[in-house]
Queue: 4 jobs
Job 1
Amino acid sequence: MKRTSFWSWFWVAIGSLYFFLPLLSTFDFSLRAKKGVLTFIAYENVFKDPQFWSTIRFSLVIALFTVIFSILLVVPTVYWIRLRLPQLRMLVEFISMLSYVIPAIVLVFGLIRVFSGAPFHLTNSYFGTYVLLVAAYVVLTLPFVFRAIDTGMSAIDVRALTEAAQSLGAGRGTILFRVIFPNLRVAILSSVFLTLATVIGEYTMASFIVGIKAFGPYMSLIGQNKTYESSSITIISFTMTWALMMVIQVFNRDKTKRSSLSGVR
Amino acid sequence: MSNKNQLTTNTKMKRDALEVRPKNSFLSNWIGVTPFFIFTLFFIVLPSVSLVTRAFQDNAGNFTLRNFLDLFSPAILSSYWVSIRISFATALAGGLLGFLMAYAITVGKLPDGVRSGILTFSGVASNFAGVPLAFAFVATMGRTGMVTVLLKNVFHINIYNMGFNLYSFLGLSLTYTFFQFPLMILVITPALDGLKKEWKEAAENLGASQGMYLRKVLLPILMPSILGGMILLFGNSFGAYATAYSLTGGFINLITIMVGSQIKGDVLYNPGLGYALAVGMVIVMLIMMIFYYLLRRRSERWLRK
């Protein structure tokens, strides 16, 4: 028994080193903006940069629209499939998982080629590019949003709830928004925060569709121009990811099923 | 008697409110899923189909297989090969480390706090990729990175004199592994949790040693899940663009980097070849996913509750 325990601790130690050394190094480096002293000046510089706030705000707004749109798209679809069209379940699941098969860089390639030309011309206006980016992010987050909602929906008796609501005289909209949505709040909230964690610092799609307006491309620009700020912004970005994941943990505390597989690299 | 019978049939009919309503027409049945299909048609199917059809066209728009044949030129094959090797290496290394850690926190009976701590960190780390991850590794293993300097000053090992370079195959693999092994932990932990105590007891009753139990019972059961997890990791790094691009500034010959520069401007001087390049990536991913589904079906056989 003692031997097992030693190896368990050994591998956990190796993994923890792998996890913490880069963070520790980055944090250490971010404090060395002035020779000989430890200083938070690299953080101050980032927080003083108006572009930091404008890109964060932009990415948050895009993330917000992504979240709203994907929830409005996925929840009614999964609900309808459970209620009326169980034969479509496989097909919808397959389509939702497609963005695992199509790498982000390939998807953005196709999106730009299709929507920059006639008849869409989405890339000709700012608004058009925002629409395209939100759509791209909805596709990107579809696998785990679908999975989370589907798991959440399987835990409640959709049919009984629908019948109960109908017998009380509720229409379709009332059933969906006042019965189904509230019962799915854990699933919805965890997919919301996972989407935020995925989308806010996303680089691949943002850099091709909207460029420097988004937070991911902004971080990349900082990395090219500023040495110490690139470390402080890494710590800031890590802290945001961590905070979002902690929120998910709180929601999922009593659930054993986890669905935190996302797809942006 | 007949009255009672009527009542039961009546409640049976009314039990399902939807079936009491007049039969829905085809249209009203499908209306609920239409938005989903329209959306995915526009933003998944259309882009994919467009890439595929353009890959089969020459510059004049005529049908051709030339672009796919051109994929077999040395420059393009080598970038596929680098991508595949890096994905394979990090899937293997990340998969092993992830599996061993997951084993430690499930079968290895470490305290619950360690388990939940590691699962939380895995959730964070597997989502922490792209630009900031590249910066973190520059601060760690770059020329003036903390680990590089530590090794030089304390252990007198200068890894850069020994041929190490963060912007190389090895450096990129080390960086990718940071998000690979946490993903493996998340994927494999449920499978390890599903192991039944009875299997171990049965093996022990039949006189199996600890090693025999591992070799003859545990590994065969877990192998499909382990391989399936590794395939997921493979795809994860095969499609990675942001991390590689911000780490190397686009100077490493990965297939994603090549597709990226083809989007920015026709660097291959042949648009059709660029599309074939992208379609080739999807084909590699499709082959991997088919393996994944076959393996998952095998592993689910044992983990059924």
Job 2
Amino acid sequence: MNRHDEIKEIMQEPRIPERLLPESVKKTLDEQQAERKQKTIRHRSWIRWTAGAAACTIVLGTGGYIARQAGNGKNDVSEADISFLTASVGSYSIAAENYEQVEALMKHYIKENTYIYSDEEKGVLYGEAILENGFVEEEMAMEAVDGAGETSSAALEETITTADAADIAEAEGEEYSETYNQEQGVLESDIVLTDGEYLYCKRIGTEYDQIVEIVPVADGVFGERTTLMIGDDLPEIVTSMGVHSMYLKDGRLIVLAEGVGQTEDASEGTARTYVLIYETGAEPALLGCYSQDGCTSDVRLMEDGTMYLVTNDSWYDTYDENDPLYCIPSYGCDGVYEAAAPEEILLPAAEVNEETAEIECEFSDSFTNIGSLNVLSDTPDVSIDFKCLAGFSGSMYCSIENIYLSSSRWEEDGQYTDFTRLSIDSGSIAPTGSASVLGYVKDQFSMSEYNGYFRAAVTQQKRTETRDEYVASMTIEQSSAVYVFDSNMEQIGALEGIAPTETIKSASFQSDLLYLVTYRQTDPLFSIDLSDPANPVILDEYKITGYSTYMQQWDENLLLGFGIDADENGMETGLKLVMFDNSDPNDLIECGYMPIYAEDVIPERPDGRYLYSEAVYERKMLLIAPEKNLIAVPFNCAWVHPTTKMYITENGYALYSYENGSFTQLGVYYTEDEHTAQRSLYIGDYAYLVNSGGIVAVDLMTMQETDRITF
Amino acid sequence: MTDFAADTKLAQQGDTAAFARLYETVYQDLYHTAYYSLRNHEHDAADAVSETVMEAFASIKNLKNPEAFRSWIFRILSAKIKRKQRDYYRQQEELTAHAVSEDFSYAPSELREVLQTLSDTDRLILSLSVLSGYTSEEIGRICDMQPGTVRSRLSRMKAVLRVQLQD
């Protein structure tokens, strides 16, 4: 019997207590009903958390609806009149004319989504549970957490041509690895970086979150390190502060940090993202600090120094009815903030519901803020442009010309994703289109723009209800699909029904081709031809066990996959590296397979081992350097201590090379115990394996450890 | 089979019989999730479910999507469970395990023991995954956790228990 069923059976053993049987519950409810029949209760909407972090569709009434509400005398409806939205019917977003419109939207949202408890209800009906926690706060937390999840798990797949794999060789000095970018010229941030002379490492852990360690290195030997305390350089008091990620570009170190900026008397705080710009070196000098409201969602840097920062900013928890404009997003530099002007705030798209004739729009408890600046200019912390959109945004894809924001929305027949396109040019940001599809994108690599077409690969769950008089049943059909949109964001091509019942595990768009890994028990790798945007076609399908969570082109003809290995029954057995020959997308060929199991990385511990790798969720943790013929895979391997019977975790990196159809394990290096693996990189002929507790240097010629530093 | 749409509508109007029909579709899983997550404390598990039911009935008026009834009520249960877990004196944060046999496979009795060694949060995640078949994204929504955290916890448990769990 399958272990899964066995566990399920064990869990299902306990007998259900009498008082929980449906008939007993009904009786209790009936008695309670009788007790409180006099009460009239208004409930706040619960739908939000069943719908998760998606922007919740709310129905904003027109005249008739408002008139009805006016009857109860509870709300000042004239202030919440959103009939001005009639103007944005059919438009994805137009700018607000004044703050009153924004205020009206917020008031409407609050009216629709707030439940006010009477004192009596507080005690009697709900016990302490809801009120102590405060669902409002919980939702906020959830949005923040979801956002973080998107960022941290954003990753696993890749899109590229081999050319951008290595922008490495600097004119002078040794070549070194750089963060791998989805699009050439659109740089992505990371937490460990090098300029060939220093390693810049963000520390991890509550007390270290605001620290960047700067470690000089030469030929595999570490010098004296400098600890940069980012908090000291912020223009105001910031609590719960942590470094998000960094860039190194043309002699400047750019650090993104987030935290709660306090007012002078520390009475109020606003979640902000700070961009600190330094000159690089052993003692970085601060050049300036830009900041905007909200937690970091994602960021991109162009070669010319233009940075686009996207933050998710929930207004709901700071809303003050006496000062509604307090929660209008603000931005500025060196601690001086200015609220976004009305014309920088985009109204949500609206449409008229045909049945009810009411205006419907999407407005949620958070804004998505997009700010731009040029971090390489003489005024690196000065804002160039700023736009504020209604709603929470998830994964973001960015080409040289456009930012595509995705956000999820739950409807009766499944989860939808809305894409918003903003054109970007030298810092200016303008919304230029939107589209919507059934399904969800896994992360940034499931989206791509090529030759003016936007393509998205989604996993879909179609929910259909079938009805037979009284009885209804719901069926969920899962499969994947690829959609192609033209320059007007009109859908012009679709390939649906790919791999029924399976989920997209990784995607890699390469010009007119898409490589897609879906999974349930085995791993079909599809090659899909998108050269005719209106007619995407599956060219080939290659099935192996397990699945790749990340794919990156290794050289002209080879596509590298990293992921989970599994046996033919779908039982996951460990990690794997796999190489495909994709020189002919019509005929994919496997040409190299390396299972990575516990016994491969800690052979000396025979008992009770298990292995996993965070790189399954964060592609930036893998070092893939074809120019060095080097692949580094971080692992956590646990084994059972023979006497204490406790699990002990060993962390480290396993290094591999690839040649003539097979992988070779070059060596296994343990990093500091009980610390999270972070990133690995190389400078010249040395690899540097970083975890949150220190760094190990390895000579790539001899594969011997040359030095080790502990933070 | 339950007609969720019709029964939700009735329950929203205060029909306890309709609510009981909806409840009937989930109560076993609710109890077993609570029982396992609360370290086999029968009374606490029963209390958690019963509080959940009362709260659910009082607020079902706002359940707009009847198909979401199940994840909605599990979300309420999860808040109750976490509240009670906080009260427990002993918290086992990290995954520990009993001795395992040479070939790293548990006999049924061993499996039972190992299940008891999981931390509170892991218990909740595992029971939601096994009993209800939720994906890590859904569990993340139910438990207020990052889907990534759920996934990595599931994969650790998966490795320890040598079992295939959906993530």
Job 3
Amino acid sequence: MDAEMLASALRMSTPVLLAALAGLWSERSGVVNIGLEGMMIIGSFWGAYGSYAYGPFWGLLFGMVAGLLLAAIHAVATVKYKVDHVVSGVALNILALGLTRFLCIKIFNQATASEHTRAFATLNIPLLDHIGFLKPLVTKVSPVIILALVLVPLSSLVLNRTVFGLRLRSVGENPLAADTLGVNVFLMKYAGVLISGALAGLAGMFLSVEHTGMYVEGMTQGKGYIGLAAMIFGNWNPAGALGASLLFGFAEAISIRAVSSVIPYQFIKMIPYALTLAVLAGVVRRAVTPAADGVAYERGGE
Amino acid sequence: MFRKRRLGLQVTAPLMAVGFSVLVGSVIMLAIGANPLQAYAVLFGFSLGRIDSIASILFKATPLIFSGLAMVVSFRMGLFNIGVEGQYMVGAFAAALAGFGLKGLPAIIHIPIVMAAGMAGAMLWAALPIYLKIKRGVHEVISTIMMNYIAYSFLHWLLADVFLDRTQVLGQGGFGSPRVRTPELAASARMPTLHKLFAAVGIQLPHYIYVSYLLFIGIALAVVVHYIIWKTPFGYELRAVAQNGPAAAAAGINSERVMVKAFLLSAAIAGLAGLSDLMTFFGYYDIDFPRSYGFNGIAVALLGRNSAAGVIVGALLFGMLARGAEGVQVMTGVPAEVITILQSVMILSIVVAYEIITRYVRTQRKKEVGA
């Protein structure tokens, strides 16, 4: 275990972490977001396009806005029309797949990949980058990784220490009580889902622009769902989500190194998914879901 | 009067959803500078105006009838079996094993064995998620999705390393590489197509059409599923557990057992979804075996409002869209992916349409009572 390994694990865990935070924002407001995968897909495509056409900053913006727009559909469907949250999410995942393929054909003249994109200039962490053995970990770091790490305490702070966060959580726990106290239940749910979409879009943008250097079809590989598992493992807390994401990142980093002639690589590819199952099997019983998660709220309760 | 109105509701909502999806499709086509009227004319003309298209629609609808029925069983149980996708692939692979592994059997015995293998393979793949659901409380949506990804890798390994057909000859001049696929199924494991049946009524189907007796098996299964859900004690228990678990438990229903049985039934039906391609079109399982029947099955079940008859209608509609998309792509240059977009918009708008109509009916009734 060296610093290079740690750096690789950190890179691998970043999209999972962002997806976990995305899921957390939505579920804390009481909306289950299976559509994370689709929002990541659409974020990875628009992130790649924005970065290809105008540079990485615009890629980041395009990716986040694309994720947010898809999330807006999810919000309207689940909050206004009370569509089953899982049904809506699954539909959005299919929509994202078809839409990106369609757009990719139209914009890049091929169905499954974009042109190469421009990534952000990497950063060296001041002071730490002089410590020899830490070098691989603290030099040439993607700013999006740092942004993702900053988002962990920031999410905690907003959720736990602000009026907005309190209201958002109250809507996920007991919407009727929140409504009685004058909290705009629907507005809070919209806010939670939209923030979720923007973060999922960012996760997708990281994959295409920062990690791979282009959009490739199927590049999300279920990371949206793994993010949900990390969120559950982290007990719907940002710090817990970070821990769980690092676990998944490690597993992936190790599996990339473990390529050997003994174990067929198809089994190594299964590791993140098998780990997700194992983790969920181990923790779900003690996890505390937001009380009104996945439940439609209707005024007057008909 | 009441019945009539309910029937109206059953028909209006899908029509609204299809209409809205067509509208969204038009906007997308206008955005890329295509003529939506022309595209839709081609879509309908190409898919409904030719006998080979009709047969092709039936072929494309066959797997969706099975995956849609699998979803109906799980939805009626209150479970969301997203794993139909992985289950039908594992099922098709198991069926392929039985198809090329067994030799010298008469078709009348071999074909049922192949189908049973497909069902068994799919049930095997569903066992862990339902175990985790009941014993560990793991939500079946995430666990079955993980099982889908594991299935892709597992089948890839089985194909590339274990059961690769090494007897294939290379392309002309020894170039290229052999396809990553299993050996071919024995002739006795191939499902007969409907060419002879159509010829009996005077219609000659072209040789490139593969609609088979699995279509009739699917329709018969729809009747069976309807019967199981509405006319048997098991179906009653299934609906009772889904609607009110505690009440069902108080009435002495073992809800865990009902859930396990329903989930495995759903998987068994899913295991038949890949057989249409395996037993007629390909004749072997290969690395490019068609995907997404599971996800389309969700759409078909929702479109058919979780009824067995509705699934058949939904599957035919999706078959028509898929066939029409081929014509649209070739004749108008609009990418066939526009159909995937239409289909996903349909899933969302169908559920929204039901909600809107239900609200409308509710307010109408209130008015009637008020007056």
Job 4
Amino acid sequence: MTTNSIQVTAAPDHSLPGEPVETRTVGQISVQQPVLSARAVNIFYGAKQAIKDINLDIGLHSVTALIGPSGCGKSTFLRSMNRMNDTIPGARMTGRITLDGEDIYSGDQDVVQLRARVGMVFQQPNPFPKSIYENVAYGPRIHGLAVTRADLDVIVQSSLQKAGLWSEVKDRLSHPGTGLSGGQQQRLCIARAMAVDPEVILMDEPCSALDPVATARIEDLIDELRDKYTIVIVTHNMQQAARVSQRTAYFHMGELIEVGATNQIFTNPGHRLTEDYITGRFG
Amino acid sequence: MNSISDTSAVRARRVAKRLRRRHWAERRFRLYGLTAVLLSVGFMVFLFANIIGKGYRAFEQTYIRVDINYAEELIDPNGTRLAQDLADGNYQGVIKASMRAQFPDVVERSEQRKLYGLLSESAERALKDHVVGNPGLIGHSDSVWLLADDHIDLLVKGEISTEAAEEDRRVDDQEIKWMAALTAGHRVERHFNWSFFTEGDSREPEQAGILGAVKGSLFALLITIGLSFPIGVAAALYLEEFARRDHFTDVIEVNINNLAAVPSIVFGILGLSVFIQFFGLPRSSPLVGGLVLTLMTLPTIIISSRAALKAVPPSIRQAAFGIGASRVQMVLHHVLPLALPGMLTGAIIGMARALGETAPLLMIGMVSFVADVPTNLSSAATALPVQVYLWSSSAEQAFVERTSAAIMVLLAFLLTMNLLAVILRNRFERRW
């Protein structure tokens, strides 16, 4: 049955023991092994509130999809998880987001270090206008992950292999990354994010600028990466969410309406708004 | 009848008429544009033709071949052949004797003085250098090309009309006769005017060169680019990449735009009171000139550098942040290298403007007559546009062609700089 005024008290939160969470979200916001967990997160752009009181856990080595209509705040929430919102003038955040139990917004959290642990892939492929090699090597270089050139070569190769790009570019590593096709560029960006060995990879509509073939390759890649990485993906494409994710969170007007196992959300949504959205009544 | 009942033929006619009118309007509009372009091209052609037509003659200078008898009693009366003794020789006497020998029938003193005046005063110095370099010439004879005086040069170049009444021209009948005789004896030639590029300014037009002004401009520009580019880029980087957008940065932005519009002479007065009167830096020096031009160029460079930074897409910044680059790393590793060509282009165009700037230099005393080529940043100097101004206000007619020649040199510099900017832009410009 669906209703939009359901009041759910979530099960005891594993990352913050002894603090039961009051939330209007339908479904189970907490998971067994949370990597990231957000509690009472509000984000404002100037006077406008983009995110309202969000509570959500992101589970280890799984793909969590954030879906919802345009302007619902899903990208804003995604970007709050590696503090990319800090770079936007006028953005302000309240609440708490923890990564492995540590508050990422606390004063002693180094934001540069955080972004090495929580990598990001953007909507538009945005390789640096440098060589393919340099694109991947840049992250390890600035974080001092490789001592010798040989170490760096290994990191570059394994990152490109993990992104499924190695066989296509191994003979032209010195060519500019911007000369690749759109899908290859996006996989290069994924390789670049993986080169610094993050725990979490945030993907902000990574396929929206790609054709169906390139999209399918990225989706396969996401499925493979799930073994080693925790992935959060924002997507407009509900089939994509259904295909790649294990857990889906539905956002509406800055609120987290419903969260649950992907197949349950898509077959048996618990909230009318979710149902309206996934059946295409608005979006 | 209303339009619904129009037959299709009537409607077609109406549409065709409209279309004709529209095509006409388009043709007319293109014609206006073409006229404007042709007009400006015409002005440019006129300008260049005028300057080159007047100035090209300055690159040639008239020389007169004189048979010199290197008499020992005049050059080296003690017979030492030492360089310092040779330098004290009476070369004027040597030249005068040679000229008298050339025209033996000129005996009257005043006539003889006029005869000596065919040659430039610098002929004596040229001969001295020649002898000091070749002491073996003493006691022998030789024929030497010596620089003619400026009014003789004008006569040879045909800029003095021989038809005019004698009292209306600078060259009298006697001199014309002498020159005709010399020409008939193949003793008059025009040579390429190297000294125009190797000498400083002079009161005598035939000796005046551009090197002093070129070096003055060069020194000043070195100071300007050395200071204004780093300062301008740093300011632009701070405002564009680091500063928060608030009232403070708004005020700064408005003021930078205002500064860019301040008339350059105001910067000259500022330089006069700050650099010369307060800091006591040397007047007329390229150092102060460069500092003043720095003040003037800085807003332009800041504005163009900010535009270059704005042109770097935000996705590059996000990409750098996204893999954990700090703000400084993001700026230095990614944004600055991408914006640099644009910044350089803006800086070169700013430099070109500074090179052509005259007014502020007048205020700090770079307008004085300086014969010596400047050797360092604090020696007195002029600059190219100031030299144009100085020569254009000189009385001698021979300075007219030199003024145009100096303009040509200035324009050559400006065109080279603009060309460099275009090449830089085409070579490094990136499309996103």
